[in-house]
Amino acid sequence: MQAAVMRQGALVIDDVPDPTPGPGQLLVRTLACGICGSDLHTLAHPEVWVEMAEESATAVPDGMPAPKMMDITRDVVMGHEFSAEVLAVGENVGNAKPGDVVVSMPITFDPGGIHPIGYSNDYPGGYAEQMILSDLLSLAVPNGLDPHLAALTEPMAVGLHAVNASVVKAGDAAIVLGCGPVGLAVIAALTILGAETIVAADFSPTRRALATVMGAHVVVDPATTAPIDAWREADGRRPLTVFEAVGAPGVLDQAMRMAPRLAQVVVVGVCMQPDTISPMRAVTKELSLRFVFGYDPTEFAQSLERIADGRLDVAPLVTARVPISGVPQAFRDLGDPEAHAKILVVPGA
Question: Is residue 50 predicted with pLDDT exceeding 80?
Fold first, then answer.
């Protein structure tokens, strides 16, 4: 089968072996897979990804299996935001059947342990024509929902988890720094929650426009208007949480500088380089600092439900669809925030 392969620090289009489902697994045909910013970071800094993943694995409670780490000297097929059609099933499968359209958390189980789909040498992700999923983690896409939109379940769950992990309540206020896919997912979750004032900041006019579509009440260009000033003008009194969704060095310090006393700063952006903050600033203002990652199965299922019932309109986020052969160029195109929000890989397109 055809796949976009991460090999020696580059993306190459190549044929890779067709996968075979084992017990409890599904063989699926990829229908759509979103390109995630984490994949862009991983391609640029694969050694950092492995280092962070290995360090995180040491924090797994005793008796719990840790995910298998990828070997960056071997081929990896990325892609973890996907929808797919079930082609065949292994033994002991009772949740899905051939012909079903499904989404899944990007994890596969086998006797060797837990494997992160898209960051594994053994299990290809959605930048391939076929994948292996775990039956127990697959969720049927409701009839009538475009599978391309269902593929956005995963990034929307990231935003939902960030909001759930925060102290934001209905009627509160929030500033979202960065209106890429993660920031937009946070804005969508805040909107559904009922946040009273959502200020979104991004240098890109295109992304600011998308922030408005997703529910932001005020959008600003931080080059000309400080987000905290926009909040003070629009509100200035409700409890405030600042979401850092940029993931670049220096932005966390900026968030802490702007945050008012007793505010919370939630870090959802993925910064893979060392960064510097001034703890005394947080101490004197008694800030709460929270880092978040991923989502839980309930949040993943809830995100699919919200997309399916229309509460969460993700269609505006999809700015392009490319075949597998177009993945390397799509990675380059995503470096321009004016060009795209979410590019979907559609095998066979």
Answer: no
The pLDDT tens digits for 120-162 are 999 999 999 999 999 999 999 998 899 999 999 999 999 999 9
Amino acid found at 135: D
Cα 316–Cα 155–Cα 53 angle in degrees, nearest 5: 150
27 with 20: CB under 8 angstroms? Answer: yes
Residue 74 burial by Cβ neighbours in a 10 Å radius (0-12, 13-18, 19+):
exposed
Tokens of residue 8, six digits = 């020696």
Helix 153-165 and helix 181-193, axial crossing angle in degrees, nearest 10: 60
3-state DSSP assignment of residue 145: coil
What's the CA angle centered on 282, arms 278 and 288, to 5 degrees?
130
Please name the residue that has the structure tokens 């989404």: 103
Can you tell me whether residue 110 is helix, strand or coil?
strand
User: What gap in Å lies between CA 338 and CA 202, rounded to an integer?
Assistant: 11
Three-state DSSP class for 65? coil
